[in-house]
Amino acid sequence: MIKKAPELKIAFISQYFHPEPFSNTDMVRALLENGHSVDVFCCVPNYPAGEFYEGYSNRDRREEELHGANVYRAWTLPRGKSKIALLLNYLTFPVTASWQIARKLKQADVALVSMPSPLTQAIAGIFLKRTKGVPLVYWVQDIWPESPILTLNLKSALIVKPLEWICGWIYRQADLVLVQSKQFPAMIERFDVQSNKIRFLPNTAPEEYAPKTRDESKDEACLVPQNGFRLMFAGNIGESQDFDTLIEAARLLRAETALVWVIIGGGRGLESARKRITDLGLEDQFLFLGRHPMNRMPNFFSHADAMLVSLKDNAIFNLTVPFKMQCYLACGKPIVGSLNGEGARILEQSGAGYVAEASSPAKLAETIRKMVSSSAAERQKMSELARTYFLERYSRDKVYGDLIAWLREASENVDSKASSTAGT
């Protein structure tokens, strides 16, 4: 008789969780489906608009059960719409989450900190490791300190040097560091993190992300135009998505009267993007559908002729792979990319679409023309290649199987408890 491995008691820490549009919810669901128990410590949901979701506040729904996980929401300062509000949101979560962990967590075999920005949310995991000897695993999806340095244009050594020191200290506290891009390890090893502690764990896509027919998606048909060439973008609208380039490309494509840009999502850059579109007289080319639940996205995708993924050209974004890339691939959609680096490499290698140089409106316009002029048979081939590439490299079984194996490895690390009290 094969002895079943014991379940893990996992403390899952991240600022972002359901109903916010992140992969964290699917990851927790997969851990539960594999027989493990999970306590989630997160913010009151406020991403991306910077306001609390309806039904949530610092008084309401601070604790709930989701898919069998206990969800504890730390007292939260919402992101707001200013950089000061965002900074305060980043700085307060480690404190309030640590307090919530101290009050609510009874037992854990391992802590998993899922980290889109900011890196500082890991401090709550470090608190748990230092106080209770719980092994600590990070899943890094954004490289710090470069991300805030480039995004905020930080130049003063009085800010940059301490930030580098803090980030290095945070990275070194982990027993294992999982990274979403193959380009990340070198960026973390420079902080004296041993290479054997770093593992590649890419994003996957939620279980419901699979090719859908238009007949399966009739509710969405009334929202998406049923004629013309529909180029669809789904996700956050912010600085990194480089909407200035997309809008300028649309201006260059004004004569392509059959082309419709369908935008699903919201974010800090939404209003400025809409204003720019209005100023250029491009309203007839764009359709903004607002935010919709993640589980409806595959239905919307079925009404698109091609999907759009974009990242601004900078040294850090060129290392990353947007989560929407795996989602588009999983749904078997042709893709137009406006990005460089690792994301561009994946799109080219998969054969799932065409890539334009990042932050180049002229190149993007040229690439969109190429997609629009492609035949239905050519786009069908891209669809098949996209789905195959996803299943071979990013399937849920593979990604979450690796994750669970590494969480178990960390939990069985006999040196972890001793190292938790050692300063570095």
Tag the structure with descriptive keywords.
424 residues, alpha/beta, Rossmann fold, 2 domains, eight-stranded mixed sheet, six-stranded parallel sheet, disordered C terminus, Glyco_trans_4-like_N, Glyco_trans_1
Structure report:
Pfam families: Glyco_trans_4_4, Glycos_transf_1. The protein has 424 residues and is of the alpha/beta class. The protein has two domains: 221 residues, Glycogen Phosphorylase B (Rossmann fold); 180 residues, Rossmann fold (3-Layer(aba) Sandwich), CATH 3.40.50. It is 40% helix and 17% strand. It is built from 16 helices and 14 strands. It has an eight-stranded mixed β-sheet with strand order 3-4-2-1-5-6-7-8. Helix 11 links the parallel strand 12 and strand 13.
Short description:
InterPro entries: Glyco_trans_1, Glyco_trans_4-like_N. This protein is of the alpha/beta class.
General shape: globular
Q: Low-confidence stretches at least 5 residues in length (pLDDT < 50)?
A: 414-424
Helix content: 25-40%
Enumerate how many helices there are, as a single number: 16
Largest sheet: 8 strands, mixed
Sheet with the most strands: spatial strand order: 3-4-2-1-5-6-7-8
Q: Whole-number radius of gyration?
A: 22 Å
Q: How many domains in all?
A: 2
Give the helix/strand class. alpha/beta
SSE arrangement, N to C = EHEEEHEHEHHEHEHEHEHEHEHEHEHHHH
Distance between the termini: 44 Å
